[in-house]
Specification:
Blueprint (H helix, E strand, L loop, with lengths): L6 H4 L9 E8 L5 E5 L6 E6 L9 E4 L12 E5 L9 E14 L2 E2 L2 E6 L16 H13 L8 E8 H19 L1 H5 L2
């Protein structure tokens, strides 16, 4: 059997982690489709179409070679002035984190800006963002599952130092969980 390429395991998380990370976009900004990486094949699959009038407020994806308690790679929202297509690798400057509970499980979302987009890469902290952007992210995640009879609670937004700590913890858990595989791609 020939080995296959899996973006979760076979793409580097970047050279300046945790300040800047590679991110793989699963869902473009404005989408109503909930796409997810199929962990076994490495392909993108349509999980569902959102049953609500909301759409993703930013490009949404994951940080390769990370792992969280929800058994998925660490989620990331990337702000950018252009639409980022599915499975695009984007260098993202980390500026904060949204801590939330999804069905009683912790589900942190790293917030970042596209490092090579001059219209957003001057943002260094969450406080630099226009206030509506934070509210939009919070409302999206609270509202998009409401019509599915599921509960999401956004607990709080934290700054980049907390985001760095969460990224580092997800890398440590990935390395503990995947061992040798984790060492091969560095």
């Amino acid at each position: 059997m020939t080995p296959h390429f899996n973006p979760w395991h076979d793409v580097s998380r970047g050279e300046n982690v945790p300040q800047s990370v590679q991110s793989i976009i699963e869902i473009p900004k404005g989408s109503k489709g909930k796409y997810e990486l199929d962990k076994d094949s490495g392909l993108l699959k349509l999980d569902r179409v959102l049953f609500s009038a909301v759409h993703y407020p930013a490009a949404y994806g994951f940080i390769p070679q990370t792992y969280c308690d929800d058994k998925d790679p660490l989620d990331i929202l990337v702000l950018c002035s252009v639409d980022i297509p599915h499975m695009c690798v984007v260098e993202a400057k980390v500026i904060g984190v949204m801590q939330m509970m999804d069905q009683d499980e912790e589900d942190d979302k790293i917030i970042a800006v596209a490092a090579h987009d001059v219209s957003v890469n001057h943002y260094n902290e969450l406080d630099d963002l226009p206030p509506y952007m934070i509210r939009e992210m919070q409302r999206f995640f609270e509202d998009y599952k409401a019509l599915e009879q599921k509960q999401v609670i956004v607990k709080k937004f934290l700054g980049r130092e907390d985001a760095y700590r969460i990224i580092d913890a997800s890398i440590k858990l990935y390395e503990e969980t995947y061992g040798e595989k984790a060492q091969q791609v560095q």
